[in-house]
């Protein structure tokens, strides 16, 4: 199984759950990723923001998890244009399902305008 980690990032807003994801996301751990995200989103936060800047590889199985997550809950993605998976995320159109921005501030600002 390719390793990945989820790390809760503190925010000043209790309605925002900010989680940094790192490692490789693929078929071998997509189900575990979905389960762990589901466990995190059981709380009171109304917005999930996933920081994907430290993800070094993502395949279609993991991308499906992100699309399903975005359909189930308000979701934002923090992703710099120089991040390893930025081009892949752009090609598949994840920004159609979730707000994608280069920083937490940018994501929150974009969500505020929707």
Protein model, in words:
The protein has a five-stranded mixed β-sheet, sandwiched between helices. It has helices at 30-40, 60-72, 86-92, 104-112, and strands at residues 4-9, 16-25, 47-58, 75-78, 99-101. By secondary structure, it is α/β, with parallel strands linked by helices.
List the main descriptive attributes of the protein structure presented here:
114 residues, alpha/beta, 5-stranded mixed β-sheet, 4 helices
Average pLDDT level: 93
Q: What's the alpha carbon Rg, rounded to whole Å?
A: 13 Å
Low-confidence segments, given as residue ranges, are none
Any idea what the shape is? globular
Mind describing the biggest β-sheet?
5 strands, mixed
Class from secondary-structure proportions: alpha/beta
- Count of DSSP strands: 5
Q: Given the structure, what is the number of helices?
A: 4
The share of residues in extended strands comes to 25-35%
Strand order of the largest sheet: 1-2-3-4-5
Distance between the termini: 38 Å
SSE order, one letter for each helix or strand: EEHEHEHEH
DSSP helix fraction: 25-40%
């Amino acid at each position: 199984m390719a390793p990945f980690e989820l790390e809760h990032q503190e925010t000043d807003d209790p309605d925002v759950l900010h989680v940094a994801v790192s490692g490789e996301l693929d078929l071998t751990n997509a189900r575990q990723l979905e389960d762990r995200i589901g466990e995190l989103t059981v709380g009171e936060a109304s917005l999930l923001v996933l920081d994907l800047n430290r993800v070094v590889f993502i395949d279609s199985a993991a991308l499906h998890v992100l699309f399903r997550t975005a359909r189930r809950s308000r979701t934002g993605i923090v992703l710099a244009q120089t991040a390893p998976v930025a081009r892949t995320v752009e090609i598949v159109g994840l920004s159609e399902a979730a707000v994608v921005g280069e920083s937490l501030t940018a994501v929150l600002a974009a969500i505020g305008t929707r």
